[in-house]
Every structure is written in structure tokens, then in C-alpha cells.
Amino acid sequence: MIVSLVLGGLTFVFCAITGLPAFICGLLGLSEIKRSRGAVGGSGLAVAGMVLAFVGCIVPVLLLLPAINAAREAARRNGCLSNIRQLGLASYNHESALKRYPLVSSSGVQLTDQVPGAPLKDNPASADGYSYVVSLLPFMEEDIFYDEIRRTTSKFENAGGAFGHTADDDPVGPGGMHFSEQQIPALRCPSYSGDNNCLPDAKYAGGAVNPAVGNYVAIVATDLQGADGKQPAHKAAYAGWENGGLVSSCWDGPDCDAKGTRIRNIGDGISKTFLLTESCEQRYGSWFSSASTWVVAATDGTDPRESLGKVGTGTDRFVDLLRGNLALGWGDRRAYDDNAQQVYLAPAKNRWAGARERVFGPSSDHGGVVLHAFFDGHARSVNIDVDPAVYLRHVTRADGDPADSDRL
Q1: Which residues of 116-129 are buried (b: 16+ CB within 10 A; e: fewer)?
Q2: Rounded to two decimals, what is the model's pTM?
Q3: Domain extents for the chain?
Q4: Residue 317 contacts residue 234 (beta carbons within 8 Å)
Q5: Using CA of residue 84, residue 90, residue 96, residue 99, what is the dihedral sign?
Q6: Per-residue pLDDT tens digits for 151-170
Q7: H-run or E-run covering 220
Q8: What radius of gyration, in Å, describes the C-alpha atoms of the chain?
Q9: Is 176 left (phi over 0), alpha (psi -120 to 50) or beta?
């Protein structure tokens, strides 16, 4: 009994090394006391030793759990960082090989008018297109998959577009699976806690397909279209509104054309301009859909023409315009079921053409940070409490304002 008590006390120092012997000694002691019919005492000592052994073993485990969970999340975040870095390098290699970065969208429809999953033939004014990810597949060791898409869609010229318009016209691969339903692990962040497929209420191709989720999206602009409907509210010098690094095939601006941006178009520096970021969006989260793979940096859930106001006249014009409206880290999964929750983009309010709300903007499940890839191929985390003006300077490709990456 005394041995059990002593070993139980030592468990707080040596954990299981003395904890298990203490427990065994306690059981043997209680058994001996029972057989002695009262001749031997000390049951309290035996029980105390067993309790000490149990507590001494379980407490360290409980204390270690946060550290274990933190280590697991660190590993998941590193995996996510590797994924987004590989996409950044694939984009850089795309430019090296083809002298252009990939287009955000192959569709001839403005990004803000595209309906996720809308087929070209039946919806020419709102047709969804192939995303930038599709263009990068050959640079991600997905050559066979890319060639299959290209062959099946007649070099991406099938009448139905990215999502077809009938079962016979859909771009489908072996076994009849729509290409958008293909699960590609490198396109999903290991920390992402949502489902692997988009929510059914997104109704891609009228509900005929249930696309796989991808967590990496292009940052196409600082904000949505301004009051004149043609450019971001802060930059009248642009003929279009896409002032981020990647552009769509609808771009019409003085610094690059609709075939895509070149390195020389990234006037603010390829190491200081965001290329991609993360998003936890699950309803409209398809990696295949160009309508689903873009975000803007700032929106507050209302019409930006009413909420963003006029350009500040001070030296830091971003501050007056967008402070407090930065969407970094926004999103709450409860919003999928609760209309009272704040959302990132809403139909008829944010120039968003989807039938339902898009809940998440630039966001992650890491807690406090969101990962970003840059045009030179490197990637890093950005704190969600970053100064909005500093963040927005890293969104624009050729704004002319200095971008201090040390403040991200």
C-alpha cells in the first residue's frame, strides 16, 4: 500500500513509468486487504496511490493536448502553404512558357455577371468559364487530366462552355464524371474543415453536377465596381475594374490586354503583388468554375456604391476609402443556414450574379491568418488585422504606391 502511494506520487514526475506500477500495486494491495478479512489495513493508502497514479498520468496528457493540436495545425498550415506556393510557381512557369499569366476566366462575360455553373449555349450573357486553375493543370503535373479535358471539349471550344447545357454536351471524363467533380488534393487546404464538394443549393449546371471544392482563388481587384460601373471607386485611371494581378478575358485596360498579364505589367513588383489567396467558400467553391475562383479585397455586404464613398484626398487615399471594409478573414459557416449572418457577396447588392449568397471572401481555417501567394512564386501568411491600406497596396498590380511587405 505504501509502495502504491509512493509510486503514485512519483507519477507526477515520471508519468506512466511509475503510474502503471502504482496502479498495479494498489490493486494488489486492495486484493490482499480483502483476503485478510481485516487483519491487514491500509486500504486508504492503496486507493490514494491509485488515484495519484491516475491523476498523474492524465494531467500531463491534458496539458499536452493544446500543444499537440497546435503542432497538427502547424503541419496542416505548412501543407497549405506548400499548395498555394506550388500554384504560385505554376503561374510563374505559365508566364515563362507562354509569356502570359493565366486568365482568371475564359468566358467572354464580365466576372460580376457570370452565374456559377451557367452553360454558354443557353446563357450567353451569364456563362461561366474555365478558371485559371484549368490553365495551370499542365504546370501542376496534371498533364494527363488537362489533355483529357482539352480533347473532350474540342480544345475548350465545346458549344456548352465549361458546364455544357445538356448531358450530351457536358465536358465529362471517364466514367461520366464531370471534370469539375474531380478531387485534386493540391487544390484543397489541409486545414479546411468544410466538405469536399460544393453545397447542392449552388446548383451548378442547374444542379446536374456537384463540383469539388478548391480553396485557392485569384485576387482580381481591391474592390467591386465603382459608381460609374466601370472601375474601382479609388482608381479612375483604369478603363476596367480589375486592378489586381490576374485579369479575365473581358479586361480592357491601358496596362495589359485581354490575353492576360505579363511580368512587365506588374508595375508594383512581382514580389510585392498578391496573386492568390485562400477561401473557405463551400457553396460557390468550385476550382473548375471561373465565376467561383476570384475575390476582391474589400466589401462590406452592401452596395459598394453606397458604402465606400469617395476617394480620400490625403497622401493615404486607401485609408479614407476602405478602412473598416477589408474583407480579409470574413465568413461564418452559420450564414449558409442563417440569413441574419454577415456574408461576403449577396445577389443584387454586390454585383454578384449567383442565385445565393457567397459567404466567404479571402479566408482560412488557420485562425488569425490567411495565406497568400505572390507573382514571383513565394507565399506567406498575412494577419487578418493587417492595416487595410498596406494590404490593398499589395493587391494592385500597377498603382504606383509603395508596398511595404514588412508591414503585412
Answers
A1: bbbbbeebeebbbb
A2: 0.79
A3: 1-99, 100-407
A4: yes
A5: negative
A6: 888 778 776 678 874 445 55
A7: strand 216-223
A8: 28
A9: left
Which residues does 7 contact at the CB level (< 8 Å), separation at least 6?
18, 19, 21, 22, 25, 49, 53
Mean pLDDT within 353-362: 90
Work out the angle between the directed axes of helices 2-14 and 16-35 (0-180°, nearest 10).
Answer: 160
Residue 372, beta-bridge partner list: 277, 380
- pLDDT grade for 337, boundaries at 50, 70 and 90: confident
Q: How far is CA 388 from CA 178, 306, 324, 364, 391, in A?
A: 40, 19, 8, 18, 5
CA distances from 196 to 73, 108, 190 (A): 19, 29, 11
pLDDT reading at 7 higher than 60:
no
DSSP three-state, residue 370: strand
Does position 81 have pLDDT exceeding 60, yes or no? yes
Q: Beta strand pairing status for 216-223 and 274-278?
A: antiparallel
User: In this structure, what DSSP letter does residue 101 have?
Assistant: P
331, 339 contact by CB (below 8 A)? no
Tens digits of residue pLDDT in 284-297:
999 999 999 999 88
Residue keyed to cell 493565366: 102
